[in-house]
């Protein structure tokens, strides 16, 4: 028998451990060739011509780790039947082992509910033309909040764009969210110079989102490496990188994982496999066994998780971050879910998938309902609590929306600041002067410019005063 890689590790049975030492321990002896190996590898020589196309020992697809069944009941033989994990407690400290108690479970649930509360309002606000763009996280609430809870709050996060929930988990406020989406003068992420949902916050260890798919993947390998080189953060902090299964088709995915594996770098790669890359279904995105099968190819410990089970995601990500921190190496977690919403406000997904399919997913495998059933079974939640929560979240979101809408944009001249450190380069100075002279000529005479200018603090006066 030809066995390509090592099987499960003792610390986490469903992870495919790829450390080189294990290969020797688990590879069977081949009769007649006992002990013969290639001189430059650990590979045994075999007389059997055997092709393989699976990373599991039995040729099956990689299994999916789950804690709660569809009705929110923990599996009897789950890895953690009493739902006790290594957790970052509500005090922000890492516990070797901690039971999920009522306070912790409610915090998770409230954050899962906060995402659709925001999405419902901001999606419609975009439709009314008040913001330019928006992306919802419908269907991925368990993946995003479970992963956020599994990380330490000072782990460096490099997201793709659907990970606003990580920021919210870390204390980013509703005002912060709204200010960024409206790009008003209080948007500290980018002073209104980024598209909505392109958040970034130094205080929340959240690197600014880039629309260009997959760039965050090699960047994360570098961030992880920098953490490893920093004596104050080595062994304590990791880089956590989110990306979609579509982004994983970019060259940057392969470059990034190879880099993180070989340098090596304490980086947790979290693949959100939500079944679609805009209109491309995952069945057309790859021919192999999802994203997880690629981890062992790069020598990276890997696990696949039910992304609709918040406790499974939490357990897998917290174990992955611990491995990454302790071993200084990359780990890959693939979270399986289904993108219930449209890709973005620029998409109509019913042009390429049936409405009935989406409705089925909402009912049959809803991550929020699943966790709510778990809470109810513990006596921690009921319909009154549900009603109160939804009313409160809606009111909070509406309050932040109205406030953000009423604020002006930053001063127009801010358009040119902070692009580079140090003195402003000549080309920006030139562009700034050109804009100022155009404003002087047309700003208060041409209707569209006049109404746009009125939306900036000081109505563009800061630029106009620079025109001689
Ligand atoms: C380099 C690059 N190519 C294409 C696009 C256009 N684009 C934006 S999002 C997207 C789909 C990404 O899908 P996935 O990675 O699965 O993430 P999801 O939207 O499902 O969360 C595409 C093709 C882009 N932004 N950047
Ligand atoms: Mg996707």
UniProtKB/TrEMBL annotation:
Residues 111-411 form the Dehydrogenase E1 component domain. Coiled coil: none annotated. It comes from Marasmius crinis-equi. SUPFAM superfamilies: Thiamin diphosphate-binding fold (THDP-binding). Its EC number is 1.2.4.4. Gene3D superfamilies: 3.40.50.970. The branched-chain alpha-keto dehydrogenase complex catalyzes the overall conversion of alpha-keto acids to acyl-CoA and CO(2). It contains multiple copies of three enzymatic components: branched-chain alpha-keto acid decarboxylase (E1), lipoamide acyltransferase (E2) and lipoamide dehydrogenase (E3). Keywords: Oxidoreductase, Thiamine pyrophosphate. Belongs to the BCKDHA family. Pfam families: E1_dh. Its cofactor is thiamine diphosphate. This is 2-oxoisovalerate dehydrogenase subunit alpha. It catalyses: N(6)-[(R)-lipoyl]-L-lysyl-[protein] + 3-methyl-2-oxobutanoate + H(+) = N(6)-[(R)-S(8)-2-methylpropanoyldihydrolipoyl]-L-lysyl-[protein] + CO2.
């Amino acid at each position: 028998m030809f066995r390509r890689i090592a099987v499960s590790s003792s610390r986490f049975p469903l992870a495919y451990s790829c450390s080189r030492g294990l290969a020797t321990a688990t590879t069977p002896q081949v009769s007649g060739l006992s002990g013969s190996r290639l001189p430059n590898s650990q590979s045994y020589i075999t007389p059997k011509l055997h092709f393989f196309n699976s990373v599991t020992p039995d040729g099956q697809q990689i299994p999916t780790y789950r804690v709660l069944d569809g009705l929110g009941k923990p599996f009897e033989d789950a890895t953690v039947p009493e739902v006790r994990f290594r957790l970052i407690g509500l005090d922000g400290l890492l516990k070797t082992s901690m039971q999920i108690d009522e306070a912790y479970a409610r915090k998770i649930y409230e954050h899962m509910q906060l995402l659709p509360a925001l999405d419902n309002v901001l999606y419609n606000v975009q439709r009314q033309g008040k913001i330019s763009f928006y992306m919802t996280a419908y269907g991925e609430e368990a993946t995003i909040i479970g992963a956020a809870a599994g990380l330490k709050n000072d782990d460096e996060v490099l997201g793709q764009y659907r990970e606003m929930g990580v920021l919210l988990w870390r204390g980013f406020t509703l005002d912060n969210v709204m200010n960024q989406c409206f790009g008003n003068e209080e948007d500290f992420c980018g002073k209104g110079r980024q598209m909505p949902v392109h958040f970034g916050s130094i205080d929340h260890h959240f690197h600014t989102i880039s629309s260009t798919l997959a760039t965050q993947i090699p960047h994360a390998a570098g961030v992880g490496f920098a953490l490893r080189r920093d004596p104050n953060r080595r062994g304590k902090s990791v880089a956590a990188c989110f990306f979609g299964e579509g982004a994983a088709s970019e060259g940057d995915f392969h470059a990034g994982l190879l880099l993180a594996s070989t340098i090596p770098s304490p980086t947790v790669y979290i693949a959100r496999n939500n079944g679609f890359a805009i209109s491309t279904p995952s069945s057309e995105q790859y021919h192999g066994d999802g994203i997880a099968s690629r981890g062992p190819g790069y020598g990276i410990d890997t696990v696949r998780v039910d992304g609709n089970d918040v406790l499974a995601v939490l357990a897998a990500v917290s174990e992955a971050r611990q491995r990454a921190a302790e071993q200084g190496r990359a780990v890959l977690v693939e979270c399986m879910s289904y993108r219930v919403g449209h890709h973005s406000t620029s998409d109509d997904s019913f042009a390429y998938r049936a409405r009935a399919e989406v409705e089925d997913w909402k009912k049959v495998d809803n991550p929020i309902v699943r966790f709510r059933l778990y809470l109810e079974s513990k006596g921690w939640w009921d319909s009154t609590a549900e009603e109160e929560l939804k009313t409160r979240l809606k009111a909070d979101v509406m309050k932040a929306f109205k406030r953000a809408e009423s604020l002006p944009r930053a001063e127009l001249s801010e358009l040119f600041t902070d692009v580079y450190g140090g003195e402003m380069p000549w080309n920006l100075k030139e562009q700034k002067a050109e804009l100022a002279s155009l404003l002087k000529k047309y700003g208060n005479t041409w209707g569209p410019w006049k109404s746009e200018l009125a939306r900036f603090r000081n109505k563009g006066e800061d630029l106009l005063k620079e025109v001689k």
